[in-house]
Amino acid sequence: MSGSYRIFISTGEVSGDLQGSLLIPALVATAQAKGYNLEILGLGGPQMAAAGAQLLGDTSKIGAIGPLNALPFVWPTLQLHQQVISQLQDTPPDLTILIDYIGPNLRLGKRLKRQFHMPVAYYIAPPEWVWSQGLKVTQQIVELSDKMLAIFPQEAIYYAEKGADMSWVGHPLVDRLQQFPNREQARQQLGLGPRQPMIALMPASRRQELDDLLPVILKAAQHVVNQIPEMQFWIPLALSSYRSVLAGAIRTSGLPIAISTDSQKVMAAADVVITKSGTANLEAALLGVPQVVVYRVGAVSAWLYQYLLNFQVDFISPVNIVAGKQIVPELLQQEAAPDKIADAACELLRDDTARQSMLTGYQAVRSQLGQPGVLQRAAAEILGLLERR
User: Fold this and answer.
1) How confident is the model at residue 66 (pLDDT cuts 50, 70, 90)?
2) Mean local confidence (pLDDT), 47-62
3) Strands, E, within the chain: which ranges?
């Protein structure tokens, strides 16, 4: 192959933007090694833009948890999709890559494939193997995707059994871990002494989570200070637009909390992480940092999940899901009370047995995430679609 080809990448929210930004350099390097160039177009956020994508729309501020909270974002999402279709009309992509974000991506992917007749790769397959929305949705994903790439072995098995052309490439955080500073470097860069206790607070990648989780996590931090007065806290900034909200809440709390734009540095330096459920759970596990996982949604959304959608899962943290058992504590809804969060964090600081048990559990999780070279394998599989075309 030679020449130049257009690839469109569609994702949403901060975690998807991160995954897209990690994949883009691998796609470009792999294509160049094969003798052709790529033009990357994207529906994502600032991290993808920084990695070289030409953004056709910004999705970083329209994510929500739960059907009720998603309602205000339905129309903006549909508008973004129409904007994308219009911009691609004259020069359609040669290949589309969808990254997670199941509802919007499924709708957009169908439109793009029907209109432009190009292959579709689904990278970071939607976690239907954990909380399936029904076989019909799974089948739609499989029928849309010319190639699916799984980051967990369990999801590769699930989708392959449903008829997908599926490959397990491993988790991209395995590659990203190489970029993290070690503990000593991180603490030195943050101005922390070797014995200074520090907890990283990671309450939100969505604005809704700031409302639901930040207040309770700040109250938990106060409970920790009551037990360990010398404790310091850092909050890594998920989006720059959150800074004013965080700064105001920190001033009101009066707690010793600093804000950083470098989540890698903060997490690597921490003794414990108090975090929402999500990608950060696996990052902490790969770094060997103990963690407490918390999550809350509004009362109406919780009722809809439980009684209308019949949403039932054993675990919500990726660490526990991959392990198939509880490695890290999950404090959900009413259990996510400030005193319980603080007690769980302090136990990990004070109890060597509890801490070591979690670190041992991390080793089992690490073995399920694949070997380094994840992004190169993913890029090669995706570009294989382009080359076969």
Assistant:
1) low
2) 90
3) 3-10, 36-44, 54-58, 95-99, 120-123, 147-150, 166-168, 198-202, 232-236, 257-260, 272-276, 291-295, 330-332
The total of structural domains in the chain comes to 2
Residues 202 and 118 in one domain: no
Q: What is the pLDDT of residue 78?
A: 82
Record the tokens describing residue 315, joined without a space.
Answer: 């675990």
Exposed e or buried b per residue across 33-59, where buried means at least 16 C-beta atoms within 10 angstroms of its C-beta:
eeeeebbbbbbbbebbbebebebbbbb
Residue 341 has pLDDT above 70, yes or no: yes
262 shares a domain with 378: no
Beta strand pairing call for 272-276 and 257-260: unpaired
| Same-domain check for residues 310 and 162 | no
13 and 141 both lie in a single domain: yes
CA angle (34, 36, 41) in 5-degree steps:
120
For 253-287, the DSSP string reads HT--EEEES-HHHHHHH-SEEEEESSHHHHHHHHH
Q: What's the residue count for the chain?
A: 389
135 and 197: one domain? no
Q: How far apart are CA 347 and CA 345, in angstroms?
A: 5
State if pTM tops 0.85.
yes
pLDDT band at residue 117 using 50, 70 and 90 as cut-offs:
very high
Q: Are 105 and 12 in contact (CB under 8 A)?
A: yes
Structural domain for 234, as ranges? 178-366
Q: What is the CATH number of the domain that holds 122?
A: 3.40.50.2000
Asked if residue 262 and residue 130 are part of one domain, the reply reads no
**Are the CB atoms for 155 and 368 separated by under 8 Å?**
no
Do 155 and 127 contact (CB within 8 A), yes or no?
yes
CB 21 within 8 A of CB 48: yes
Q: Are residues 337 and 216 in the same domain?
A: yes
